[in-house]
Design brief:
The chain is α+β, with helices and mostly antiparallel strands. It has 2 domains: 4-74, P-loop containing nucleotide triphosphate hydrolases (Rossmann fold, 3-Layer(aba) Sandwich); 92-151, no CATH class. Helices cover 32% and strands 19% of the residues. The protein contains 4 helices and 4 strands, in the order ββαββααα. The protein has a 4-stranded antiparallel sheet with strand order 2-1-3-4, covered by helices on one side. The protein is elongated and about 50 Å long. The structure holds adenosine-5'-triphosphate and magnesium ion (MG). Residues 13, 16, 18, 36, 38-44 line the site of adenosine-5'-triphosphate.
Length: 152
Amino acid sequence: MAEIRVQNLHKAFGDFVAVRDSTLTVRDGDFFCLLGPSGCGKTTTLRMIAGLELPTSGQIFLGGEDVSFKRASHRDIAFVFQLFALYPHLNVRRNIAFPLVSQGVPRVEVQGRVLQAAKTLRIEHLLDRPVSRARDRAPAQGVHDGRATRRA
Ligand SMILES: Nc1ncnc2c1ncn2[C@@H]1O[C@H](COP(=O)(O)OP(=O)(O)OP(=O)(O)O)[C@@H](O)[C@H]1O
Ligand SMILES: [Mg+2]
């Protein structure tokens, strides 16, 4: 894990300001919740931290590094969507393995880490199923969490 620091973050869509001068620090290891009324800019803030949206102004630091204008793929950050976004053509095992394989982790290590994640999440029995048949809410959330946590 790493510290997330957001400084004077601002996001406008045309004339509409979605995030206004937001500053916060999530320390390494913290469990942090963003709470607020619908439309106050929570998702937009998270999307900017992940790199799915670029700030209009302000800065985002991950582990002390300024990533404000880096692509999501260059930020080394995982995120779990509220609505599932699994790779439909890959089975459960491959969905969880995907970020590790992309990072070039050796195959044997990938196998071990995927199995460990599946045990923790109690979805071992689903590993070789297509994700299309693992779409009950709880197991699908497990596959998601597995994929997000295995990259760490
Ligand atoms: N791509 C966009 N274009 C224009 N306006 C947008 C865009 N994305 C978000 N907004 C607007 O920015 C504001 C903040 O949206 P955001 O989705 O961040 O809110 P939220 O706090 O996550 O709300 P909720 O609790 O409903 O999920 C909203 O008024 C929304 O309509
Ligand atoms: Mg939201």
